[in-house]
Design goal:
By secondary structure, the protein is of the alpha+beta class. The strands form 4 sheets. The chain has a 9-stranded mixed beta sheet with strand order 2-3-7-8-11-14-15-16-18. The chain has a 4-stranded antiparallel beta sheet with strand order 1-9-10-17, with no helix packed on it. Strands 4-6-5 form a 3-stranded antiparallel beta sheet, with helices on one face. Helix 6 runs antiparallel to helix 7 and helix 7 packs antiparallel against helix 8. The longest helix is centred in the first third of the chain and has 19 residues. Bound molecules: flavin-adenine dinucleotide and magnesium ion (MG).
Length: 326
Amino acid sequence: MLPFIKALWGPKAIHRLDMAMGTVVTQLVHGKGAREAVEATAKELRRLEKLLSFHDPDSDINKINASAGLKPTSVHPDVISALNIALRVSELSLGAFDVTVGPLVRLWDFRSRHPTLPDIGDIEAGLALVDYTSIDMTAEPPMVYVSSPGQSIDLGGVAKGHVTDRMGQVLGAHGVRSACLNLGGNVLVIGVKPDGKLWEVGLQHPAGEQGKYFAVVLAADKSIVTSGVYERYFEFAGEKYHHIIDPRTGWPAESGVFSATIVGESSALADAVATAVLVMGLEQGIELVRRLGLEAVVVTADNRIYATDGLADAIHFVQGLSPCLI
Ligand code: FAD
Ligand code: MG
């Protein structure tokens, strides 16, 4: 989703839009040195996209996948950082989030112009390859090994968050104290707006029109990350099939959660947890959110909205909606 972001445009604000990682990346950066800072983050974005993409044959991820069952691969430390978070969430979600979901993601091929349903036998074969415990890695030297041929890592559920965190660090190193980044639904706000007020990040309703938001989260120095069933999907024989796969069934998750927004410090963690909640469903998902000290807003298939009580002062609902605070 592309949340609505209400911003105050000051005289030194730099606004930049890039297409990267299959999505729209916007940056709004305030203050002295904003131009140089934004150029540096754009460079960082390109570097990480090349490293982490499942689609780029030369990426570190594809090198690991091509060597699955054969030999360990030397990788950039960024791959280890992203995998560390992915594996932590894989473990805590008992595999609802599984970074080795690659074989199933390929089968479902949401990028195809003429998508179709995978063959049941292929789904069974793909399921047998999904197992995050088969990843072995070391940080020093940075190496990754996946133990069986055909297995593949797909960082699609966590990499945008990792890239957002890194871009935020680059802005920090340039002395930026007020900025808002949005990587296709991975939002990071740095500091407050130049007028001293909190940033306002709008959340889109999964059943609503693009750009229509149902709530606004007020935040400073926070990541606000949304996963939903409504952004990437295809329709086949009148049914919608979205891109978050339940690693237990091999089919798009049907947990009763339509969108999950996670609020926290680390964008990578929030990204992985948002994806996990889509698979785990409301109750187990909120349990995971609490365990990790995060906050969440969840919209369910029956059109109910739930928000964790830690957000009570930070969230405003529009159009008279009354959410359940849990
Ligand atoms: P999220 O919920 O954060 O993640 C969903 C994605 O996670 C799925 O698309 C899948 O990849 C993976 N996933 C599905 N189920 C699970 C599960 N149970 N556990 C763990 N992971 C799961 N898309 C393009 O169309 N063109 C591109 O050129 C392109 N390049 C990319 C480069 C990079 C570096 C990355 C990270 C992604 C790229 N993508 C590209 C993919 C696209 O942007 C993804 O749709 C996006 O990463 C998914 O993010 P999301 O916020 O929509 O959903
Ligand atoms: Mg995610």
